[in-house]
Amino acid sequence: MNFLIASLITFLAASVFSLLSRGEKPKILFSCFGVVVGSLLGLLPAVQILSGEGSLGEMWFSGIPGLTLALGVDALSAFFLAAIFFLSILISIYSIGYLKGETRLISSYPFFPVLVGAMAAVVMARDGFLFLICWEVMSLASYFLVSVEHDSREVRYAGWIYLIATHLATAFLMVFFILLWKNSGSFLFEDALRRLPLSPSLAGMLFVFAVIGFGTKAGLFPFHVWLPHAHPAAPSPISALMSGVMIKTGIYGILRTLTLVGGPELWWGGLLMILGMLSIVLGILYAFVQEDIKRLLAYSSVENIGIITVAIGLGVMGLAWPNPWIATLGFAGALFHIWNHALFKGILFLSAGNVVRTAHTRQMSLLGGLLKPMPVTGALFFVASAAICGFPLFNGFISEWLIYLGLFQGGQDFNHFSLFLAVAGVVALAFAGGLAIAVFSKAFGVIFLGNCRNRDITKITEVPASMQIPILILGLLSLGIGFVPQMIWGPILLTVQSLHTGFAIEATTIVDSLATISRIVAGIVGGAAVLFLIRYWILRKKPVRLSVTWDCGYIHPTPRMQYGAASFAEPISTFFKPLLKPILHSKHFTEYYGDLAEERFFVPLFKKTTRFFSLLRRLQKSQTQDYLALMFVTLILLLLWEVWFGI
Amino acid sequence: MEFDPVLWGLHLFLLLVAPPFFLGVIAKTKGWFVGRNGPPLLQLYYDLFKLFRKGAVYSKTTSSIFRMAPAAIFILLIFAGLFLPIGGAALLYFRGDIILFAYLLGFTRFLLILAAMDTGSSFEGMGASREVTFGALSELAFFLLLVVLVVTTGALSLNGIFQWESLHSTFKPVFLLLFFSFFLILLTENSRIPIDDPATHLELTMIHEVMILDTSGPDLGFILYGASIKLFLFMTFAVSLLWPQTGGWSWFSLGFFLLKILGVAVAIGVVESSNARLRLIKIPQLLIANFVVTIFALLVAIFGRAL
């Protein structure tokens, strides 16, 4: 525990020193190295716990009477801590290269250690009060990092949406923790567990509040509206951190809630699965029609959060049935996918950052052929694309395999509505699988393959090594987990067992299957190597010529004639036109895909709210006395309420 | 999964040697329908032999992805073939290998699309865009089909599904529906008429053929050889749906199996001869209709289980 406290203090100190220091160099050094040191300090105990050395005891701070602030780390916290700290180390190394010349970003970078520290504290908090404090610090720190380039109207708008979304989420969480406190008389998580059981209706209500509150942070449909705005606006390392680990704190919240509100009911799992499937299907569809690479990746995050949520929902249904085998598969698949997504989404956002940095545009249709000038970035983007599509050889396959296996098992063992949900889950995942191939062959193909579509973009070179190495490490890890998946099965099973005491399942068959997959992957790589040798041997003595691409005899081909992002997506976007509702700007020859949840739900909702609150605006008279009178009346009313009802 | 050299040898022999022959059978059938002789049955072997002795021409635009994809696609298809029971039991199996099988095929599609986009040709980009659309829609039906198989047979590996661990009786209505659905998936995935025309030479109408316009020499060999293996795998899958192999390996069952595959090949030839290629805009509708057929199969399976 001392290590973790030291790590939190390091983050705080790094932020303060970075804020106080003058000049760009020391600011960068304090914030980035502070995060590296702090994360290394924190990674040590997290890894220790995950290797099975038992959870760390809790620490208590009680100053204010009636309120105790507690920190503690169990396997679930350690699982998320490992991801947070590991990704933060790599992102801060990446930032050292990325920050050069970004004056405005540098002056906001003291918030970076605060964000990392707050994320760590969120998963370590052991009472509702501290949790909410850390949660707010995390949201605000990330808000300041998102709206760095605040001279652009889009960025201000994105920041505004993010701020509103995250505070609405917090409002639900406040209600959640206050209701919990009312029931048990203490904010401590431990006491919430001790004073069970809650009445089923109260537990259900708490669960729904938690899903709304945490789901907004995680980016679950329909609460995902802030993601596609915030990610293109934020600087790339911050997008990577937010998409890689920050939105996972929402998932952590849902998992933690399951341990707080008692034995789950079947419909909780159903609710999670339905929201997850909506996120999967709509997330991947919207991702496919995007032009902006970072907006595409943001929607892909919505899809992946959907996959994780479906898996958690399956696990909850497994608990409720009860069917420990399905529950294990569901939760293990969800946790595995959390780590995997942190890895490959980290790669994707960081390498997209490299592209944006060198080409100065996020529009895919202006790019092309970047694999040759940027071989390392391109190769890693390929690895991450293949991993996120879930192909064998890469880590993404293993988690999707576990989730599919659970869903198929659900198809065999469940009945009634659960059976329907399990089958629908398979269909949603298959839909996303097919479209993920489309999304990432489009992203990789349009950006990195072919010829560059814009003649103005010249002199593209590979980024400096400090921006390559962190991505390279992530890529190697992604391949490594794909090769030897049984390597991290231990920590995952440990975390699954910590979620619920009822898991006494021997998952040896899974370990055997993972070992088989590992051998098959090795076989494929070996076989491919042999075939490449044969091919090389055939072509060694034969004439090999270079020529132009076959253009059907056309005399003057230009790179603009290549299939671009929009034309590649055309068949599917035409097929789903009634759902996607593109807005055409014939003046600029552009097409814009608004978001269903945003335009059909949130915009009308906020318009109605504005109309309602305009009634209250009459009370607004810019005189101090009036405001004092209003405050007085409010306090009297609260007092009366307290006297009559008692909170 | 003990190592049985006879089984391995037979399986690999069938997987590596037999497939091009059945493309010859399809071509012969189509030739017979239009009153011609058709190419020799062994034509693809001659083509492959020729291609593997040739040099190659590469576009200046292409990168290493274009050069590595054909061989990688080939090896992925071979490994997918190890999970399917061909002569006797499958060579490799474990709980959940159906997902690995589907994703190995998906990986080949991804690589083929990237190789096409690597040339920077607008035609190949067009082919890639179509392939990705129809592939996504047919994958939807394929996974639902896997669900139906898993629900009806209670197994989670291809080997178990096709009768080597548990038994399922042939000619249940579920399997008839599944066979119909899978036959359409077969036509889509292997770019046959009515989805795609493998014989066309008009770039604008092609899907699969247009994606390999720039591939030449041994790389084209790998692609064509791989395509024949993929067709063989799908034909085996279709045959096993309708009429699975029973018992262990014997010369009789082997000959019987090859006869059944021959029947499917002739059926493909008949379908190709008696249909015109669909308009591209109609293909998604056909594939969604196919998905609906699979849903019917699922309902039949579930109600059958409840009784």
The backbone outline of chain B, from C-alpha atoms, is globular
CA radius of gyration of chain A is 26 Å
Flag low-confidence runs of chain B. none
Binned, the helix content of chain B reads 55-70%
DSSP summary: helix tally of chain B: 12
The N- and C-terminal alpha carbons of chain A lie at a distance of 36 Å
Mean pLDDT of chain A: 87
As a whole number of angstroms, the C-alpha radius of gyration of chain B is: 19 Å
Task: Determine the structural class of chain A based on helices, strands and strand pairing.
Answer: mainly alpha
Low-confidence parts of chain A lasting 5 or more residues at pLDDT below 50?
Answer: none
| Largest interface between protein chains, with number of residues from each side | A-B, 79 and 76 residues
Largest sheet of chain A: 2 strands, antiparallel
Beta strands of chain B, count: 1
Using brief descriptors, characterize the structure shown:
heterodimer; A: 647 residues; mainly alpha; two-stranded antiparallel sheet; 5 strands; 4% strand; globular; B: 307 residues; 12 helices; 69% helix
Please provide a brief summary of the model.
With 647 residues, chain A is mainly α. Chain A is built from 24 helices and 5 strands. Chain A has a two-stranded antiparallel ribbon.
What does the model show?
The complex is a heterodimer of chains A (647) and B (307). Chain A has a two-stranded antiparallel sheet. A two-stranded antiparallel ribbon of chain A has the order 4-5. Chain A contains 24 helices and five strands. Helices cover 73% and strands 4% of the residues of chain A. With 647 residues, chain A is mainly alpha-helical. In chain A, a hairpin with a 7-residue loop joins strand 1 and strand 2. With 307 residues, chain B is mostly helical. In chain B, helix 3 runs antiparallel to helix 10 (217-242), helix 4 runs antiparallel to helix 5 and helix 8 (173-189) packs antiparallel against helix 12. The mean pLDDT of chain B is 87. Chains A and B meet through helix 16, helix 17, helix 20, strand 3 and helix 21 of A and strand 1, helix 4, helix 5, helix 6 and helix 10 of B.
